[in-house]
Write a structure and sequence with these properties.
Blueprint (H helix, E strand, L loop, with lengths): L3 H6 L1 H10 L6 H34 L2 H36 L20 E6 L12 H7 L3 E2 H8 L5 E2 L2 H17 L4 E4 L4 E3 H6 L13 E2 L4 E3 L4 H4 L7 E2 L6 E10 L18 E11 L4 H19 L3 E5 L11 E9 L4 E10 L3 H6 L2 E3 L5 E3 L1 E9 H11 L7 E2 L5 H4 L3 E2 L5
Parallel strand pairs: 4-9, 8-14
Antiparallel strand pairs: 1-11, 2-3, 5-7, 6-7, 9-10, 10-16, 11-12, 12-13, 13-16, 14-15, 17-18
Helix pairs in contact: 3-4, 5-12
GO molecular function: ATP binding; serine-tRNA ligase activity
EC number: 6.1.1.11
Main location: cytoplasm
């Protein structure tokens, strides 16, 4: 959520930011609500003052006049209750309206309407030129008996899977590879709760603008299943003041992710590209505000380091204003080459959400001047397991249907190849 004072004092900047992000918001509504709240607060405070004065008058009044002051006091108390209720209602309306506003974009974000306007920052590696007819990951996985969509469908319905055998070993090899790479960089491994309160999810900014439709709700418990571990890690320090010497505070979360994916269709629903449940390793940082852009570049560099270790062809994209999620001020995506589709597909994302989430969560730090200030929060994908499995299987496939194991993963796999005794 934006700073309300900044929002109200800089309407032109806010309006331009909204236009650039395709957010059609009437600024007059929040301005009017703010003015109404100010007036309601003044009324409430005046009535409380009058109530206090009346109570003092009761003590000083002659016995014959005391009943008159007592009756007036009862009337004032009722007015105070009404004024307090009015103030609370306006505060709630104001907060609801403020939540509609997207984060302020960083200056280097390109203005654009949609994904077609995203910028290619760099391209790393070249797609393999196969001299045989390639298979997609599902055909490879079913032939090797390491992916079972059909049986998962019997048990759970569409867009679930059983990973089996070497696919499971490959997942755990990826996990160990990430841990061995990122823990030395100061990331604290964490397995977060998979169920969080609706309040915590709302504070992270994922329930507005249709986000609620993508989340699995446990309505009997006023709780939700996380769609990524960042949604559980972010609220971990809510209502806390972090010591300056602890920053940057970096976490590496591992968790299942649960997503309804209600708008998915076509080739995206084949295989394990877009499932309702998948595992992911996620980086999350809390930093001083002036260092958040530097931390953003650092998270991107960690994503690229992991990708370069796997020797997969990819490209880095800087998303344009119309393609960035509302909590984010800047987002980079990494898109990896998927041979069966003959295109690059998103496998990683990293975003600087500045103080948009930490404002709601009330996560602060004590700066060098001894003052409490909001920290900035950032997130970045280490590996979304399903998509990286797809990229490895398809880019490393062999003519006989076997799959070469990337060299960096072999110490944990204990083999060079899946589906053949020889690489």
């Amino acid at each position: 959520m934006l700073d309300l004072k900044h929002l109200l004092q800089n309407p032109e900047e806010i309006a331009e930011n909204n236009r650039n992000r395709g957010a059609d918001i009437d600024l007059s509504i929040i301005k009017s609500l703010s003015e109404d709240k100010t007036q309601a607060l003044q009324t409430f405070e005046d009535l409380r003052r009058q109530t206090k004065e009346n109570a003092e008058a009761v003590q000083k009044a002659d016995p014959k006049d005391r009943e008159t002051f007592i009756k007036e006091g009862r009337n004032l108390k009722e007015q105070v209750k009404e004024a307090e209720s009015r103030l609370a209602d306006l505060e709630s309306q104001l907060e609801t309206e403020a939540k509609k506003y997207p984060n302020l974009l960083r200056p280097d974000v390109k203005i654009g309407k949609n994904g077609d306007d995203n910028e290619i920052v760099r391209v790393v590696g070249k797609p393999v030129n196969f001299d045989f007819e390639i298979k997609d990951h599902l055909a490879l996985g079913e032939a090797l008996d390491i992916i079972d969509i059909e049986r998962a469908g019997k048990v759970s319905g569409s867009r679930f899977t059983y990973l089996k055998g070497d696919a499971v070993l490959l997942e755990f090899a990826l996990i160990n590879y990430v841990l061995s790479t990122l823990v030395p960089e100061g990331f604290v491994p964490i397995i977060p709760p998979h169920i969080i309160s609706t309040e915590a999810m709302a504070a992270m900014g994922y329930l507005e603008h249709g986000g609620e439709e993508e989340i699995y709700h446990l309505k009997n418990d006023d709780a939700v299943l996380i769609g990524t571990s960042e949604q559980s890690i972010g609220p971990m320090h809510m209502n806390e003041i972090l010591p300056l010497e602890k920053l940057p505070l970096r976490y590496l979360g591992f968790s299942p992710c649960y997503r309804r994916e209600s708008g998915s269709y076509g080739r995206d629903v084949r295989g394990i590209l877009r499932l309702h449940q998948f595992d992911k390793l996620e980086m999350f940082s809390f930093v001083e505000p002036e260092k958040s852009d530097e931390e953003h570049e650092f998270l991107l560099s960690m994503e690229e380091k992991l990708m370069q270790g796997l020797k997969l062809p990819y490209r880095v994209m800087r998303l344009c204003s119309g393609d960035i999620g509302r909590p984010s001020a800047r987002t980079y995506d990494i898109e990896t080459w998927i041979p069966s589709q003959n295109i690059y597909r998103e496998t990683h994302s990293t975003s600087n959400t500045t103080d948009y989430q930490t404002r709601r969560l009330k996560i602060r730090y004590k700066n060098s001047a001894g003052q409490n200030e909001l920290v900035h929060a950032l997130n970045g994908t280490a590996f979304a397991i399903g998509r990286i499995l797809i990229a490895i299987m398809e880019n490393y496939q062999q003519i006989d249907g076997s799959i070469i194991v990337p060299e960096v993963l072999r110490p944990w796999m204990g083999k060079d190849c899946i589906g053949n005794n020889k690489p």
